[in-house]
Give the backbone structure.
Amino acid sequence: MQIARVIGTVVSTQRDPSTQGWSLLLVEHLDVQNQPTGKFTVAVDALGVGPGEVVMFTSGSAARQTKITAARPCDAVIMAVVDTWEVGGEVAYVKGESEA
Amino acid sequence: MQIARVIGTVVSTQRDPSTQGWSLLLVEHLDVQNQPTGKFTVAVDALGVGPGEVVMFTSGSAARQTKITAARPCDAVIMAVVDTWEVGGEVAYVKGESEA
Amino acid sequence: MQIARVIGTVVSTQRDPSTQGWSLLLVEHLDVQNQPTGKFTVAVDALGVGPGEVVMFTSGSAARQTKITAARPCDAVIMAVVDTWEVGGEVAYVKGESEA
Amino acid sequence: MQIARVIGTVVSTQRDPSTQGWSLLLVEHLDVQNQPTGKFTVAVDALGVGPGEVVMFTSGSAARQTKITAARPCDAVIMAVVDTWEVGGEVAYVKGESEA
Amino acid sequence: MQIARVIGTVVSTQRDPSTQGWSLLLVEHLDVQNQPTGKFTVAVDALGVGPGEVVMFTSGSAARQTKITAARPCDAVIMAVVDTWEVGGEVAYVKGESEA
C-alpha cells in the first residue's frame, strides 16, 4: 500500500456502466517524511474521505477486494484514512496537524 | 487509474484471435496539471472515444473487467471520459476548453 | 499494451516443464516516435513473428490469456503485429518502411 | 520479493472492514549491499516483526496468499524475516550485526 | 520475463509456513548486452540453479504458475536457465563463456 494525500476530484459522465457509483479522487503519493513525490493516482474512494486527507490506497488486483470495487475495472482504491505514522521512533504525521 | 489523452491509433491485422473487435488507441499519460508526461500506453477502447479526448484508463488485471476485454489479453482499457478535474480547489481541466 | 521491436531470441533447454513449446523473443520497447527506449522484455511469441518486426505485447496476468500461455508462468506475450500507427494525425510507423 | 527494513508503523482507525486485524508497517527497500534505496511501502505484517528488522515482502496478487490477507485489499505482505544474505560469496547482512 | 544473473542467496528461518521448501536466490537484472542494471529481485528457484548462472524469471501472478509456488506468496520465480541469446543477429551471451 502507499500513503497519499487527497488533492482533488475527477468528474466523468461517459464511463463504463460497471463504474457507476464510484467517487473518483486524485491522490498524490507521499514519501516517509510526509512530502509529496509528484506521483499521482486516480483512486476509487471506498470510505468517504475529504479533500486534504492523508489516506492509504492499495493497487492492482487487491483494489478489487472491497465491496464497491469487486469485479469492476478498478486498479486503485482508498481503503484507510491515516491517523498517524512514525519513522525511526519519531512521528512523521499526525492527522489534523499537518494538513494544509 | 491514470488520466491520459488519446493521441493516436494503432492498426494491426495479424493478431491473436481473442483480440478481434478491439479498437486500439495510443494514450499519453498526463500529470495533475494536464501536462503530458512522455509516458504512453496502448489501451483498448471500451467506450468509443475520439482523438484528443482526455480519458481514464485502468491497468493490470482490472483491465479485463469490462465486457469487451473479459478473459482476453488486455492489460489497459479506457473506461471513462474525463469531464473535468480539480486540484486543490482549482480546476485543472475542463472538457472542450483545453483540447488541441 | 506496449509497442516493441523484436531484436533477438533467447535459447533455454533447462526450464520449467510448463514452458515447453514456447518461442522466447527479446523485444525492445519503442516510444511513440518509433525510437527505442532502452527497455527490454523477454516475451512469449503467440503469433510466429520474425526478427525486426514491430509488435505489441501484453503484460501481467493478461499475458496468460492466450492458448499457448494459459495457466503457465508467462508475464509477457506478443499478441499482435503492428501494421501502422499514427500520432496526432501523422503516421509514425508503417510496416515495411522503417524496419532496419 | 524485495528485501526491506522495518522503519515505522502506520495507525489507522477509519478503514475498510476487511482490513481489521492488520498490523501495518512502513518498510524501506534495501539494495544488495544493505543500503536504503529511498523507496518505501506499507506492508501488512504476517509474522509479528519488530522495528529495525530486515524482512522480505511480496507484492501484487501474491500478497493475498497468506491467511491474514486472503481475499482482502492487500498488495504487500511481510512473509519472512531475513537471517542473512550473501552476494558473490561475501556476506552482505547478518541479523543482529548491522541493525541500527 | 527478465534475464538476470544469480548473485547470491537469502537465508530466512522465521517465515510464513506457506513458503517452506523454497530456495531463495538474489538475482541481478541484466540488460541486452549482458551488463548488470543495478536492479535486483529475490526469486524462488524452481529449477535448482547455481551461483553465477544466467536465468530467466517471471513476475507477478505468473510466478505462481509452477508446482513449487502455486497458491503461495511468491511474486518472482526462476523458470529457465539461459543457454544463449542474440541481439540483432549477434550473440550477446553464451553459457559457460561469459560467467565470472
